[in-house]
Specification:
single chain, 178 residues, alpha+beta, Alpha-Beta Plaits, 5-stranded antiparallel sheet, 4-stranded antiparallel sheet, 3 helices, elongated
């Protein structure tokens, strides 16, 4: 297993580094802005001739590179969870114009969405696991939810619009004059 070193960079983000089998030094700087820098670097022991490379990646480019490299163990673990029949794990990124922005999570069961769990709310670089109903959600937060695909979809509609899709009512034919 690769030994990854993690260092907080105040005001910047997070640096993750590791040394490859052949002695190469590789790192990723994840900026608070969402950009990432893929870097190779040298220590004093490598000498002045060692080359350094830095490549700036957008969030989409970083995700693409991760997929091309085979993903992470976390992704593999989530893939296994998502293969459980009837379970969907999804992320909802809160925007300023979403209904849930500035609101408390509330109890979705009281609104008819039973069997859905908000697993965590990710805010910045920290996660708030199993948040309570009175947890206030802000733009930029990411809600991690688990439930059936239908319940997740229903919750996301509510988070966006404040409305729940109503089930169609059944009509009954009645004789004239009733």
């Amino acid at each position: 297993m690769v030994d990854v070193r993690r260092v907080k960079l105040p005001g910047v983000g997070m640096l993750h580094t590791f040394v490859t089998e052949d002695g190469g030094k590789c790192g990723v700087i994840t900026h608070r802005s969402g950009h990432s820098d893929l870097i190779t670097f040298a220590d004093e022991e490598d000498g002045a001739d060692a080359s350094k490379v830095s490549l700036r990646l957008s969030e989409d480019e970083a995700h693409t590179l991760a997929e091309l490299l085979g993903g992470t163990r976390i992704t593999e673990g989530l893939d296994k969870l998502e293969k459980i029949p009837g379970l969907s794990i999804d992320w909802f990124s809160v925007d300023y114009d979403d209904h849930i922005a500035g609101q408390q999570l509330g109890n979705l069961a009281s609104r008819g969405v039973v069997g859905l769990t908000v697993v965590a709310v990710v805010r910045g670089e920290s996660a708030n696991p199993a948040p309570s109903d009175d947890f206030k959600v802000f733009p930029g937060d990411t809600l991690v939810v688990a439930g059936s695909p239908e319940k997740v979809s229903k919750a996301f509609t509510f988070y966006r619009t404040g409305e729940l899709a109503l089930k169609p009512t059944t009509t009954v034919d009645v004789p004239p004059g009733w």
